[in-house]
Amino acid sequence: MKIDDLVIEIASRRVVDGISLSIAPSQTLGLVGESGSGKTMTALSILELLPPEATVTRGRFTLQNKPISDRKSLRGRTVGMVFQEPLTALNPVYTVGDQIEEALLVHRPEAPYSEVLDALTEVGIPTARAADHPHALSGGMRQRVMIAMALIARPSLLIADEPTTALDVTVQAQVLALIARLQADRKMAMLLVSHDLAVVASTCQDVAVMYAGRIVERGKVGDVLARPLHPYTAGLIASRPENSAPGVELPTIPGKISAILPSGCRFRDRCAFATAACAEEPPLVTRDNGHQAWCVNPRG
Amino acid sequence: MLRGALIGLAVLFALALAAPLIASGQPLLWWPRGGSLSSPWLYALFDANINESGLDRAFNAALLFIGPALLLAKRMKSARLFCAAVLFIAMAVAASFPLERPRALFTEEKARFSLRTPIPQGPHEIDLAAARKGASRAHPLGTDAAGRDVLARLVWGARPSLTVGVLSVALYMLLGTLLGALAGWYGGKVDVFIQRAIEVMMAIPSLFLVLAVSAFIEHRSFAHVLLIIAAVGWTTPARLVRSEFLRLKNLDFVLAARSSGDRESTIMWREILPNALGPLWVTATFGVGSAILIESTLSFLGLGDPTLPSWGQILSAGRATREWTLIVAPGLAIFVTVALLNVLGEGIRRSFEARRA
């Protein structure tokens, strides 16, 4: 799956501004950024699930080097999707078995119900729970049902939009392990949207960091997290509570994404290293290992 | 409370269904001298001269067939739809094709043996000799100006009253749900158009609208009354369903259904609509109560169907006699029915609130 030069506009404001991504088969790409950076919009645009006020005004989507003409036709069959809120992502009036079956029958009307039960077993839910309504399940179980539903038509790419954000930490680890196992079993590619660097570090091979609609840095997870080039990435890593010493105030990135973006580097109004040169479009910095960043003053 | 209201309403509907068993001018069994045993009552159920209204004949068909249908449906779960269909067809046939063959008239004197219903007088049977009488042994609630038994009319009157309530509400619920769903789902111009239509309807006080429209119809039938009530009632469910659609269509399960490849029509009718129906049950229950009241008002003012003894008609006829039992009895019937429906609606509303909290 490749996305080239994607632009998404809401009321002629570019919320995603010319980003490019590529996900290799059975690889996981983490898409990281704070709220409003455009990561969810990017994920939704792949299946044409954007809200009506947002439109894709530019961009090419290719799958195995073939351009995709109708992205809606990918839904379920080629690309599955898991959402953040398992509480609202399942329909409260149907049993979970019926919902998974619905997702299956859309693509294969002849499929037997036993496949639904197999799918539940695969995500670690007893088949007896198929007759339960979503409210009778815990958050973790609901997210497992979501995963079973997303994977029932055997897609080759899974888009997971903050799949563990709404879950307890212990359940988070289980769900991530489940996703990783299923991904390996099925040799499936995955796009993991998250703001949690720990989640990205433990599940992804590649990572792309987004800020205000643009990708500011990308590369192998190990390289990016160990030696970030962009001050924004460095700031994100520094502000993780796990990295702080007791008694010392937690470092933060001051401010928030501004409504009126500055010219040149969009992070420049919050950046401690900003110089006059940052008012121009930032240059691409590339390291030998494929690690890339768009910055005038790269760290490291 | 909820349970009591349900039982009370079930009793009311059973009474409406069983009206011919309680009050009929024809004996259940009749054995005339020089003849054989027969049931004039059974024939009368579908006789055009005795049961003039198709509504009554449909109810009578339901009375005959509902027992076997329920029994069969209980025995064989797969036959449920079949039973419902047979019952419906029987009711439609009874309503459209009355028996019109002339037959030997029943008389008490010729009988060797006869078995009567508790009230031996039908709702339309006139006995001028006994007109404008108060309560007596023969007529527990007295008679009206034409000598018709008020208790018989009261029991038979449950049929048109309850039918108007239930059918008109079912009709406007269907219409309102459809329009509300379209408005909430498509938004934009569709929404603007439907919203303005709702506002125009709501700007006119519904009772005056109903009265004005009724006054323009020359030969008012039962169906007219039903349609008029349905035509003014649809705005409430339309607004409810619209707001539910606006809320629900932005929830993640809609996005999830779409991402798994569901078609838009599937999402609209199968994913969102069942979630939007909850609050409608409350509106529907209260709606039946107010529809019965509107029908009573129309009938009382002489704008109803004059051929059917609805409770409003009985009240109106009773007022003309100035006999207090004739006013209190139908008034009480209306009051009890509407009160039971309101208690039921309140109970349903509370149980939904408990589920949300």
Index terms:
heterodimer, A: 300 residues, alpha/beta, Rossmann fold, eight-stranded mixed β-sheet, four-stranded antiparallel β-sheet, 8 helices, 12 strands, 26% helix, 23% strand, B: 357 residues, mainly alpha, MetI-like fold, two-stranded antiparallel sheet, 68% helix
What is the compact description of this entry?
The complex is a heterodimer of chains A (300) and B (357). Chain A has 300 residues and is of the alpha/beta class. Helix content of chain A is 26%, strand content 23%.
Describe this structure in words.
The complex is a heterodimer of chains A (300) and B (357). Chain A has eight helices and twelve strands. In chain A, a hairpin with a 2-residue loop joins β4 and β5. Chain A has two domains: 2-209, Rossmann fold, CATH 3.40.50.300; 227-242 and 251-300, no CATH class. Chain A is globular and about 65 Å long. In chain A, 26% of the residues lie in helices and 23% in strands. In chain A, α2 runs parallel beside α4 and α3 packs across α4. In chain A, strands 6-7-8-3-9-10-12-11 form an eight-stranded mixed sheet, sandwiched between helices. A four-stranded antiparallel sheet of chain A has the order 2-1-4-5, with helices on one face. Chain A has 300 residues and is an alpha/beta fold. The longest helix of chain A is centred in the middle third of the chain and has 18 residues, at 169-186. With 357 residues, chain B is an all-alpha fold. Among the domains of chain B are: 26-116, no CATH class; 158-308, MetI-like fold (Orthogonal Bundle), CATH 1.10.3720. Chain B has 15 helices and two strands. Chain B has helices at 2-17, 19-22, 40-44, 54-75, 80-96, 150-186, 188-203, 206-216, 222-233, 235-248, 252-259, 264-276, 278-300, 311-321, 324-356, and strands at residues 29-32, 111-115. Chain B has a two-stranded antiparallel ribbon with strand order 1-2. In chain B, α6 runs parallel beside α15 and α10 runs antiparallel to α13. The longest helix of chain B is centred in the middle third of the chain and has 37 residues, at 150-186. Classes of the chains: A alpha/beta (300), B mainly alpha (357). The interface between A and B is medium-sized, with 28 and 16 residues.
